[in-house]
Amino acid sequence: MGRIDIFNQIASELGYGFDGEIKVGGNYTPLLRHDGYIYISGQIPRVGDAVVVQGVVGSDVQLKEAQKAAQVCVMRALALTDRAVGLDKVKAVLRISVFVQSAQGFTQQSEVADAASDVLYRVFGDAGVHTRTSVGVYQLPKNAPVEIDFIFATL
Amino acid sequence: MGRIDIFNQIASELGYGFDGEIKVGGNYTPLLRHDGYIYISGQIPRVGDAVVVQGVVGSDVQLKEAQKAAQVCVMRALALTDRAVGLDKVKAVLRISVFVQSAQGFTQQSEVADAASDVLYRVFGDAGVHTRTSVGVYQLPKNAPVEIDFIFATL
Amino acid sequence: MGRIDIFNQIASELGYGFDGEIKVGGNYTPLLRHDGYIYISGQIPRVGDAVVVQGVVGSDVQLKEAQKAAQVCVMRALALTDRAVGLDKVKAVLRISVFVQSAQGFTQQSEVADAASDVLYRVFGDAGVHTRTSVGVYQLPKNAPVEIDFIFATL
Asked: Which fold has domain A3-154?
């Protein structure tokens, strides 16, 4: 299976479509290519106009839902990348930063991030093995449980 | 108008001057050039010796003040860049990370970051359209309401 | 003294050895080389299987202990780098991001980060002078007091 087939399979498992417009407000862009690199803005689990999971992880939001939210963030980044250059042009995933909106005492940020890492590995194989930083933050935009940004290298 | 003229105009609108020394303590540097890139350390809204806005956004600090603080952070980064290479050498703004010291329940981190994005767009035009990550953190150094770091590409 | 000698001296001052396996769970890697750059995943103060300092800085954990924890994070990154390419191949430390698990009202994130910066400067000299972002976050994985990630440039 090609990368796009795996992408579509994961979309189907999650139960969401990622072919709608990916909106941003403000004078910035969700994706920027420069000199062999792709930078992707922090993605929250938004599908269309809706943030599909909202709340604080460890109180309102359980680990499993937070993991699903993390996967939606990755799928948005992959959808953006596919439109900009095609998934086949990704040579390496250099770094992801995973910000988890965390309840006091919630320390499983790595477990949330693992779900994001799994999607990258399923789609890209060895080229999807990346470096990662996971932290627990106090608040995220739109009460999102997770926000993830990305740096890819392109062929 | 050239970039430096727009920079000066924004400084005048904000009511601050950015031609003083930009101090750092510790064994690090506010700006580092490497191989076509400029990395800028996390900037807080300090002018001279004073952090000009302090407090938690959403309780002590209102959105408008936080937006002004975000603009001061960007102006510091631009002042550093102007001294190091000149604003005209900036080819692209690749990424900014915006950390907002947030009260519980404050979810307008993106709106704070929009004010930063606006300054970059005013000064650089299309070259100022960047990727961005905005998160709400619990505490920032010196009780700053906002901290922003930057990666630029140079000509 | 060579870099590795200084590294060993700091290890001895800290009272820890860094020659054990550096484990990660999940589909990611602690270190990734790409095209003249080394990206290092967020490091917590783990030695072997134990996180050697745990807790919230400013309440459970005092500044001095947090500074030591920050130094252990850096030493882990240096140990990883030494195995991958050798410390002598590091040309520049481009950026570190320092996340401090902070108590309400704790604003000395920069002072924690200074301890990390000092290790980089001791080992690399001028090549260790980096850009830095320090923020206070609400929770870190495994209740770590500090997490630090890194971007190095290689010769």
From this structure: 60s Ribosomal Protein L30; Chain: A; (3.30.1330)
Strand A90-101, strand A131-137: pairing: parallel
Å from C48 to nearest chain B CA?
A: 28
pTM of the predicted model as reported, rounded to 2 decimal places: 0.96
**A115: helix, strand or coil:** helix
User: Residue B131 is inside which H or E element, if any?
Assistant: strand B131-137
Residue-wise pLDDT tens digits, B99-149: 999 999 999 999 999 999 999 999 999 999 999 999 999 999 999 999 999
Strands B31-34 and B37-43: antiparallel
Q: Please choose, from the candidates A142, C100, A149, the residue with its C-alpha nearest in 3D space to the C-alpha of residue B106.
A: A142
Residues of B in CB contact (< 8 Å) with A are: 36, 92, 94-95, 97, 100, 102-110, 113-114, 117-118, 120-121, 128-138, 153
Domain locations in chain B as residue ranges: 3-154
Q: What is the pLDDT of residues B68-97, one digit of tens each?
A: 999 999 999 999 999 999 999 999 999 999
